C-alpha cells in the first residue's frame, strides 16, 4: 500500500524511521525501522548530529567522524525514504584514479579520512542543487602523510540532489593544517549587481572570510 508519514531521526550511527502517529517503527524501512550508517561495519566513530535534507524520495546525510588517523573517509549519501536503500553516494575523499585524486600524493588516498560534512547542508529545491560544506582531511594538524591540495576537503560542493553528481566545487583552504572545517550550513541569498539579481549561496568560515558564489556556476 501507499507509504504513510514517517519521522526520521538519528541516534549515534543509527538512522531510525518511526510512525509519527504512534511511535512504532516503520518495519519496511531498513532493518525493522533501523539503518546502520557506519560505512563498513561497526568500529571507528561515526555519528550524525544535524538534520538531513529531504528531497523528493530521498534523505541526504553527511556524518561526523574522528579528527585523527582512524577517521572514516567522508561521504555524502542519499537514502530512499521508503525502504532505506542507498540511492547515491558522493565520496569526498576521491577513489584513486578519479577526479580530484590527482591532488593527493601517491599512496596517501589509501589511508585518507575526513573531508566529511559534519554541519548541515542546504538545498536549492528549484534547481535540485545541494550545497555541502566539507571539513578538513585527517589527521588534523599533520599533513606530511597527505601531501597535495587534498580535494574535496575544505570545500563548498554543489551536487545534483537527484544523482549526487558534482556540479562545481570551491576549495577555501588547500592542504589544511589548522582544522579549518567549513563550520556551518551555507545560506541561499540574492544580491544585486549592475542591475541584475543573482541567486547566490554564501559560505561562512572559521577564518572569518565570507564567500558568495553564483549557485549554478
Q: Overview of this structure, please?
A:
35% of the residues are buried. It contains no helices and 18 strands. The protein is globular, with a radius of gyration of 18 Å. By secondary structure, it is mainly beta.
Write the layout of secondary structure elements.
Layout: E1 7-11, E2 14-18, E3 34-36, E4 46-47, E5 53-55, E6 58-61, E7 64-65, E8 75-80, E9 86-91, E10 113-114, E11 122-124, E12 129-133, E13 137-138, E14 155-160, E15 166-171, E16 187-193, E17 196-204, E18 210-214
Antiparallel strand pairs: 1-2, 2-3, 4-7, 5-6, 6-8, 8-9, 10-13, 11-12, 12-14, 14-15, 16-17, 17-18
- Helix content range: under 10%
Q: Which structural class is indicated by helix and strand composition?
A: mainly beta
Using only C-alpha atoms, the radius of gyration works out to 18 Å
Report strand order across the widest sheet.
5-6-8-9
Largest sheet composition: 4 strands, antiparallel
One letter per element, helices H and strands E, the order comes to EEEEEEEEEEEEEEEEEE
Spatial shape = globular
N-to-C span = 42 Å
Strand content: 35-45%
Average per-residue pLDDT, rounded, comes to 95
Low-confidence stretches: none
Count of beta strands: 18
Short description:
This protein is mainly β and 217 residues long. Helices cover 0% and strands 37% of the residues.
Question: Any descriptors?
Answer:
217 residues; mainly beta; four-stranded antiparallel β-sheet; 37% strand; globular
Amino acid at each position: 500500500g501507499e507509504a504513510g508519514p514517517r519521522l526520521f531521526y538519528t541516534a549515534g550511527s543509527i538512522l531510525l524511521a518511526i510512525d509519527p502517529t504512534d511511535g512504532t517503527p516503520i518495519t519496511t524501512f531498513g532493518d525493522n525501522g533501523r539503518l546502520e550508517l557506519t560505512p563498513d561495519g561497526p568500529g571507528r566513530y561515526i555519528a550524525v548530529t544535524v538534520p538531513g535534507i529531504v528531497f523528493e524520495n530521498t534523505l541526504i546525510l553527511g556524518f561526523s567522524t574522528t579528527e585523527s588517523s582512524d577517521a572514516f573517509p567522508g561521504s555524502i549519501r542519499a537514502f530512499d525514504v521508503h525502504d532505506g536503500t542507498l540511492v547515491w553516494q558522493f565520496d569526498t575523499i576521491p577513489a584513486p584514479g578519479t577526479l580530484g585524486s590527482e591532488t593527493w600524493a601517491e599512496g596517501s588516498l589509501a589511508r585518507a579520512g575526513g573531508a566529511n560534512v559534519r554541519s548541515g547542508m542546504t538545498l536549492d529545491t528549484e534547481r535540485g542543487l545541494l550545497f555541502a560544506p566539507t571539513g578538513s582531511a585527517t589527521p588534523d594538524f599533520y599533513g606530511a602523510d597527505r601531501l597535495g591540495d587534498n580535494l574535496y576537503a575544505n570545500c563548498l560542493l554543489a551536487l545534483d540532489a537527484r544523482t549526487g553528481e558534482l556540479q562545481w566545487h570551491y576549495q577555501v583552504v588547500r592542504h589544511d593544517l589548522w582544522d579549518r572545517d567549513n563550520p556551518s550550513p551555507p545560506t541561499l541569498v540574492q544580491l544585486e549587481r549592475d542591475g541584475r539579481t543573482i541567486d547566490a549561496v554564501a559560505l561562512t568560515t572559521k577564518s572569518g572570510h565570507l564567500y558568495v558564489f553564483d549557485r549554478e556556476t
